[in-house]
Amino acid sequence: MAPRRGAAVEEEEPEQDGDLMSLQFDEPLTWRPGKPIPTEQLLKRLTSLSKELEQMEQETTNTASLNKVAKEVASHPLLTHKDKGVRAHTACCIVEILRLCAPNAPFTESQLKDIFNLCVNAIIPALFDPSNPYNSQHKHVLRSFAEVKSIVLLNEVDGSDNLLLSLFSNIFDGVSSSKSAAGEQVAKDVQFAMQEILLTLIDEAGGLPAKVVDVIMAQFLRAAAPGGMRDKQDNASLDENQGTLLLKEEPEAYQMAKTICQTFPDKMARFVSQYFSDVILDATSFAGKSNGHKDAEDSEDENALSGPSESDMKELKKAHVLIRELWRAAPLVLQNVVPQVDAELNADHVHLRQLATETLGDMVSGIGAAGPPPPPVIDPSAYPPLRWDEEDRTEAIAASVLTTPLSAISFSQTHPVTFHNFLSRKIDKAAQVRTAWTVSAGYIVSTSAGGIGLSREDETALIKGLGEKLTDSDEKVRLAAVKAIESFKFQDVVTKLGHEGGVGKEGSVLSNLADRCRDRKPAVRVAAMALLGRIWAAGCGELLAGNEVVTAAISGIPSRILKCFYANDTELNVLIDRALYEFLVPLAYPPAKKGGKNPTGGSQSQSAPSAADADAIRAERILILFRGLDAEAKKALFVLQARQPQFSNVVETYIKQCDLYNGGVMDENADRKTANLTRSLEYIAQFMPDPIKAKNDLQRFAKANDRRNYYLIRYVIGKENDFKTVYKALKELIKRVQASKEPAILDTLLPLLYRSGCILFNRSHLSTIMDYSKSDKNGMGAIAHEILNEVSQRNPDLFKSHIGQLCKDLVEQAPTASKPNDPAVVETLKACASYCRKYPKEVPLDRQFAQTLISYALYGQPYKAAKYAVNILLSKQDSKTPVHATDLIQKIMKDFKYGSPNFLNKLTAVAQLELHVPAVTAEYEDTILNMAVQQIVLEIRTEASAKDPEWVDDADLDEEIQLKLVALKLLVKRLHGVDEAEAKERTKPVWKMLKKLITEKGELGKTKDTPKHHRSRLRLLAAQLLMKLCKQKHFDDVLVPAEFNSLAWTTQDPVAEVRHGFLEKLQKYLAEGKLRTRFYTIVFLAAFEPVTEFKHRLETWVRSRALYFQNQSVKQPVMEAIIARLIHLLAHHPDYSPELDSLVDHARYLLFYVSLVATEANLGVIYKYAERIKQTQDSLSPTNENHRVLSDLAQAVIRKWQEKKNWTFQAYPDKIGLPVGLYAGLKSHDEAQAAAEKQYIPDGIDEKLDELLRAIDRKKKRKPADDRHDHPSKRSRTVPRLSAANEPKPPKPPKAPKPASKKVKAKAKKPAKVKKTSESAATSSSQRRRSGRAHTSQSYIERDDDEDDEEMLEGVAEWEYEDDDSDEDSGTDGSGDESQEENEKKAQNGDGESSDLSDPEDAQEEAEDQEEDEDKGEDNEGEEEELPPAKSNGRKGRAAAGPKTKAKPAKSKASAKPAPAKTSTRATRGRRANADDDEMDEDD
Prior knowledge:
- The chain is built from 64 helices and 6 strands.
- It is mainly α.
- The strands form 3 sheets. The protein has a two-stranded parallel sheet with strand order 1-2. Strands 3-5 form a two-stranded antiparallel ribbon.
- Helix 4 (about 85-100) packs across helix 5.
- The chain is elongated, with a radius of gyration of 44 Å.
């Protein structure tokens, strides 16, 4: 039994039994004043006493014999003796007396106070110095307190609170530090005894002083050492060297406090509850008070509410850190504190809610005062890549027990109400709170709630919330969501975040994360793209191994990154380059051999491959990357690589200019050299996010004049260098620039080198890619062929060292009549043909190889092999070329019969011969023409059926339609292969056939119907070939306006593949400048295109072209003048009607045009064209006034658009010209004046247009984070999609439907001449066009801000288009062509990269087109001139064509400046979840 303090010395002792042992020690321990006992002697006496007392047992001791020594040892002189030994031995004697006298202590209250003062302040602190000479005595005192529990007497001493405080403080401070000079640690038995003392005191105490509770609580904050409490973001910055600073185990004082709380949870819970009540409740009580402002209740400013002071918040944060650590160490003591934190979740003050959210999140995650664990390290260049079944190599650099998430009990089960309230904070109105919730949710899921696990429902709710926060309206929340995912291990990303769907599933967490790659805020998109790149890099090994789970989750990451290219944003393009070369295929992959371990703690760098193997491994990574790309992403990546030769030339020119500039020190021609350098700087700077900074950086680089850097850049961009050379040069250059005086120039230089260097497609990689193309290893043969084909077309120089091997492979696999070739070899043929086109002299075209090519032409499969084989065979154009051609044509003509073996090959070969060597085929001209026209094109062998599909894929085409398509191409190629005079004679029958195919919808049969899918293919090819012919001026002159209109209706064909194929070919030719600008008119007939994705790509392309023309140095109204042609085209539209509803449909075309082309600067020009048309007559139909109706309609649309955009209208002061083939002048001024004053549009059109614009605004459903600009906080409400059938009619309610008769309209264009059909069939054809439009007539305006368009499209046109289209409407030369040499001198980019926004055409066909166009010229002369003004103005006759000729238009009431309207709020942009939604949002 523990001793108790009593007045035992005052009471009379009971009589002792005779067998009890009495104390024998009788020497004096006290002295009279002035005569002290010598210290040495005193020590001997105390030692003797203590030894005797130790040998005595409580049961056999006569306690009365102890009274005398008890009084002496408790005397003040001994307890305060100056000698440490005396005090130590005195304490030993005292504790023994207490042991023997228990439970009655033979000391007075004042003596006990002196005794405990000695023990607490001297004896116990001395234990922390193990080298103390009296350490054994100190330990004896401590053990006695712990074992006898005499320490409980301290609770009964007057002033015990201070003693308790000192005791707890001394013990906690002492056990966590060493006082020994030798650095010895406190013995474990001492620590255990001290812990027992504290536990005894708390167990026996009815309560604890508040300050003692403070001391106990403070020990949990030791977990934050070193450096105090860490912020969550700070942990992420630890590197491998800083990892040694982290504590590897819990501090001793922390362990003691933890044991106390775990041993007495209920008692400590009361103390802890009171402790936190003093801080939390006081702070919370301030939160709900108004700040006294009048409108405080309605204010949305959270910070306007008064709350805790700065000092209060500091204490509150400290308390919350302590709560986190307490939950991690002893969660049961917080049972009364959690409700207090829960109350803070509902506080009015935003910082309190934020703090409570952070705290509860960390509690659920098991994160304490030390902060969260550092994020896992994922090295994109690690080799071998991470495998699923391997030990996790993405663990943190250094593990710390204090940062390891730990939760002893489940928070969600222990406090379900609070956990539910925590989950509700994800929709808090304050962004700070949502940010805190997002971070917490990430840690909860990634740590599995501190390792204890989550229920499926809770985990699903958290993951869903995390995905929602990725699309939050506030950038900080979105960034926090991205950072939260960074805390996940790779396996957790796949199994947890990818469980409900991978990157390809709309609305999944990973899909939303991928959306952030095009976030409007730079910080978010940078973090998202880097994280996605690391995730994909970590999964590369599993992707190669074919892990279905990993593939489903992350295989789409590169596609989502690369499709950001379509946003046409310079900053995004730089990020794509970084992601490509730093994460997806890092420059350092695979790492070189090194001694020692890599940063992840593994030893994979020691197993790094040799240089040859490294190239193969890197090429394999490239193939893995390409294999996972979808069509659009693959196209984007090919375009990115296709610009490398261009950028390489640009950088080479820049380096030459730097060399001549010589750092500003020049002997002669200084002005010219400086001007040349400036032009180079300005040209390069336009492709950078910050042109001014880029120009300054490049100027400083030139000023530095570091010759070694020049050489290194040449190594990087040199096509002849292997990858190892390129990488080493780039690495050295980076180090040199970083060590220079201008390290910031690397921000500009590095993206430039990424684009111009031979990095991805390097000659070192081709050997491996070629091996894969042959072996189809890991199923990557097809993609290897595709890459080889792309390299051969875009950068054939890389094939110089491999062309011999390609030819050898072709010889080995040559087919015969009885032995077919491998179908994959056609890609090798294609690559070889592309190389031959640029380097025809370098192909070893010996007799054996020539016969091999003839074999491919006759027997190669698929039949396109014949085309490529003939191109290679005839590439040299030397004396042997006619011989080879003659040999081939003779072999073909031996059995040139329909149905003969390999007839498709023969016909294809003949088509190529007609193009390249028409003289050789002249002998067989009649036979060829008879076969192509009579036996193939006009003959119908396949029976038509009502069940025939409208379209079939290329692989499913039957031989008959394949022959028809090749025959049509043959007929057109015959026209290209002869001179202009002869071509005109040959053109008539071919032209007639093509026109008939277009107007008759692909039908040529007179007695027999053609199958539907045949007709679709034929009319598509006919339209494409007609455009192809029009690339040459003498053919384009033949295409009269009526035929042009028929061609344009192909844009509204009922078959989507026909529409898209036609428009894509049109885009290609327009972007290359090979068609006159009148063909831009056709594009705007796609206003009702039902395929949303295609329509968005088309809109982006149109904007880029409009921006391209606007940025030309000599500005000409090219796109602005198109409205004149568009109005004429619509005036002759088959569906035109002057009825109000029909005009609304036509207004949609005009609105589509205005939304894509109009800006505040050119609105006056467009309006001038629209106004001028009204004062003319239609050249095709002089009595027709349709164009005047549409002129009024166009003016109304323009005014409405101006009001909607709140633009200032600026009238165009100059005169404009109209196409003379479409419009003619009126006979008199009176007639012109009458036309100008008459209103041709019916009443009510204004209301209809207003409804149309309102419907467009309502249908803008954009996610806020997808927009690239800041927007107003208010967003348009999402409404159901409206069709033409349920559009509102004034003045009825908005949802009132239109009459049923107006419901169905179709898009397919009815030909000018059709065969007689039943009335129902005719109705169906007419309605088809309208139904197509009605189905998709939802939204026409893409953006509400010009700056959005400009930012999105900036920089597209420059890289896509080589030739500048001229304004043919103004009568100037429209060719805009420049020689290749001149383009290089001017650093012009334009290798036909128009395919970056539309599907790329076959490069072989493109080259073929170039050959056809060679020496033909494309003189796009002006078609338009100004019409003659009215005679009454004194100007007779027609003015000369050209922009300088001006006419004064007649005044019109419609020309009055409209009143400005309110600006509509702009909704933020988001990805569409429904493909049928046809609103015209920007496709990111």
